[in-house]
Every structure is written in structure tokens, then in C-alpha cells.
Amino acid sequence: MDYVLVHGTTQSPRGWDRLTAALARRGHRAVAVDLLEGGSDLDADGYAEIAARQVAAAAAGSEAPVVGSSGAGPVVVVHSGAGALASAVAARLGASRVVWLAAFVPDTVRRRSLLSEIQGSAAEMFSSEWSGLAAPPTGDPVTAGYFLFHDGDLATLRWGLDTVRLFQPARVYAQEPRPLPDGVASTYLLPVRDRTLRPQWMRVAAELRLRIKALEVDAGHCPHVSAPEEVAGIIG
């Protein structure tokens, strides 16, 4: 199986390195795309095209196909705010499945953009501490560690902090959401010690918006950093 890993708003593609290695040990290939290559002012389709180009480049540089070798489309893994891009990326890559990793699930029922939902329901979505931040946590290692890597050991904390980077695609967050393409399955991994998105919000979003039951892991907002083997075992 092949995987396309889509970073969220607080990490660079390096944040996927531990999960990529864990998947490789299980015989899978993964491509971690870098959406910031296209800047921070594209719409969802624009970022999907960036992802497709990078996946194609990875395939061209490999002795074997990087995506689609099993005859099925790749598994797209979206973290955190990258959930707003899940539909566009899945459609562009012909994905077979989307894995939502502590990810925002768009409200395709009421057709609210992420920005609109935050404006109307922030207290339901986010922890009060996260909502109270005056600036993104990427600018302060103490804040980033508290929200993103509090569930790991010291080595994990140090490694995680080296992957922190801000990515805020404003046009995407203001777009009306689209549902996943027909036939694309979903898996939702819910970290129960998340300090950003509220676990209860994620649980309900998975049930009402994806029609699935979330799979819970004992981790914080970045389980691909603190628990890569567990995550790989679930999605692989």
C-alpha cells in the first residue's frame, strides 16, 4: 500500500519522518508532500495540484511506483487543519482512503467553511487554552511543546520541535467544503490527550460527518511523532 502524507498548520513534512519509517518497516511506501512550496495563498485545488506534482516526482525517482502499485489508489493521511484539504487531494490523486489524524472534518452538511465554523463554534472545537493563544504556537518552543509534543519523552520533544513550521492557507479555510469523492473510505484516529482539538468534538465529527466510529489512541495532537508504530499498525 502507498501513502501520501499531508502536513497540517504547525509542522513541516519532516514531521512525518517517524511514521514514514514505521510504514516502511511494514512494507509500505509514503510520500510526505510540502504544500508550502506553493505559498500560502492557493485554494484547495491548487494545493492538491502541488501534492500531485510532488507525488509524480517521487514516483519518477523511484525504481518502483510510489503510488498505486497495489492497483488501488493511495491512502491520503491528513493531519490537523489539513482536513480542509482532504477532499481535493483525495480527488486529485484518486485516493482509495483518507486517514484523518487528529484532523478537522469539514461540515459538508451545513456547508460551513472552516473559518465560519471556528467563528461560530470555537468553544466546541478547541480547548480553551488553544483558543486563548494570542499567536500561533509555532513561534514559541515552550508553547509548541505544550500543545504538540507533551505526550512524548525528552528526545521526542526535541525532535518534534525541530519540525515545527507555520502553514496557514487562508483561502482554503474560507472555502465552502466539498464531500469526499464517491467510494473513498475514511478512518479517523482520535488522540485522547489532544490539547488543541477537543476529543469530544472529533468523536462527534467522525460519527456525524464521516459516518464512522473514531479509533482512539493514547496520545496528544501529533501521534505520528509520539506513537508512530501504533499509528502505522492501525493504518497499515
TrEMBL record:
InterPro entries: AB_hydrolase_1, AB_hydrolase_fold, Sec-Metab_Biosynth_Hydrolase
Domain AB hydrolase-1 residue range list: 4-232
Gene3D superfamilies: alpha/beta hydrolase
Organism superkingdom: Bacteria
Pfam families named in the record: Abhydrolase_6
Alphabetized PANTHER family for the sequence: AB HYDROLASE-1 DOMAIN-CONTAINING PROTEIN-RELATED, ESTERASE_LIPASE_THIOESTERASE DOMAIN-CONTAINING PROTEIN
This protein's name: AB hydrolase-1 domain-containing protein
Species whose genome carries this gene: Streptomonospora halophila
Lineage summary: Bacteria, Bacillati, Actinomycetota, Actinomycetes, Streptosporangiales
